[in-house]
Amino acid sequence: MSIDKLRSLKEEVIVAITNVVDLGQLNDVRVKFLGKKGPMTEIMKGMGKLSNEERPLMGKVANEVREAINAAMEEKHQALESAKIEAQLAHESIDVTLPSRAVQTGTTHLLTQVVEQLEDLFIGMGYSVVEGPEVEQDHYNFEMLNLPKDHPARDMQDTFYITDEVLLRTHTSPVQARTMEKHDFSTGPIKIVCPGKVYRRDSDDATHSHQFTQIEGLVIDKHVTMADLKGTLTAFAKKMFGEEREIRLRPSFFPFTEPSVEMDISCFKCGGAGCNVCKGTGWIEVLGAGMVHPNVLEMAGIDSSIYGGFAFGMGPDRIAMLKYGVDDIRHFYTNDVRFLQQFKVKD
Ligand code: 2U9
């Protein structure tokens, strides 16, 4: 092996290293030229056969060549490693400017929306919201509301009884009865609305559900008149169904109010001319109300010769069905998201 051959071997290896495109090929070059059977090993092995004069120069050049090759190898190795990392980073990079995938969010249930609208409306008129137990005592659900033991509304057919004395409340009125019983008039009048779930034994169909919602109002003070009730209900009708609404009170009967009325609003669809919503009458029934029966006041320990007031009750299910054109009460309780999503509220 001459010095020239050694130098041209170096050139050959450097060119081979330059042309390498990945770490695998670089390793092939290493094995081919520097491996056990490669020319470099041969050269090193052949050193021993050289004369004493030739050996130092050949040894020096061979070391230079080996170092140059090793340096080129190392440089290429690092270049390929960094290229590999660069490629990986480019591949794994995240474009933070891309729009994200839409997250499926829930929405406030339509019934909850309507109950909240009603609460806000009455809070705006100075009422407080009061809630109470759904599992109730017969005493608060019936007895205190002037529904004695033999009253037809207490029929086993209509009420879910748990024991003889405990039941699922059939209306939210027991919440008012409990409030009246513990009220201290030196702190001011009673002015409350009581929303919540109520239960009645019923066969479910498009207009009946064994569990539905109610919101009832109660005002007790000195000098409360039916004119106050009428003004309150007119304000409710206009705020809930439009400023153009008129109301109509028809005589009715409830055991807990006397006199009792039912309230109709002028039809919000046809304005009173007659249509499918008001069934041709021009009027839509929306709630019941009346002046609290003296028996109810006395049973709660309130002197009916000094205090009196009015009460009203309505079904948010019915209000929501009318206002949003829902044709089946069961939609509120079967939780089909296709129904619920139609009433999505914007936050
Ligand atoms: C007390 C005294 C009086 C609440 C009232 C009504 C009339 C009424 C129904 C309408 C449809 C309930 O949702 S509905 O089924 N309610 O017509 N409710 S007066 O009177 C009370 C309540 C509590 C202590």
UniProtKB/TrEMBL annotation:
The keyword ATP-binding applies. Gene3D superfamilies: Bira Bifunctional Protein, Domain 2. Pfam families: Phe_tRNA-synt_N (PF02912), tRNA-synt_2d (PF01409). Its EC number is 6.1.1.20. SUPFAM superfamilies: Class II aaRS and biotin synthetases (SSF55681), tRNA-binding arm (SSF46589). Its cofactor is Mg(2+). One of its GO terms (cellular component) is cytoplasm. CDD domains: PheRS_alpha_core. It comes from the Bacteria. Keywords: Aminoacyl-tRNA synthetase, ATP-binding, Coiled coil, Cytoplasm, Ligase, Magnesium, Metal-binding, Nucleotide-binding, Protein biosynthesis. Residues 110-322 form the Aminoacyl-transfer RNA synthetases class-II family profile domain. Mg(2+) binds at E258. It catalyses: tRNA(Phe) + L-phenylalanine + ATP = L-phenylalanyl-tRNA(Phe) + AMP + diphosphate + H(+). Residues 62-90 form a coiled coil. InterPro entries: aa-tRNA-synth_II, aa-tRNA-synth_II/BPL/LPL, Phe-tRNA-synth_IIc_asu, Phe-tRNA_ligase_II_N, Phe_tRNA_ligase_alpha1_bac, Phenylalanyl-tRNA_Synthase, tRNA-bd_arm. PANTHER family: PHENYLALANINE--TRNA LIGASE, MITOCHONDRIAL, PHENYLALANYL-TRNA SYNTHETASE. Tetramer of two alpha and two beta subunits. Belongs to the class-II aminoacyl-tRNA synthetase family. Phe-tRNA synthetase alpha subunit type 1 subfamily. This is Phenylalanine--tRNA ligase alpha subunit. It comes from Brochothrix campestris FSL F6-1037. The lineage of its organism: Bacteria, Bacillati, Bacillota, Bacilli, Bacillales.
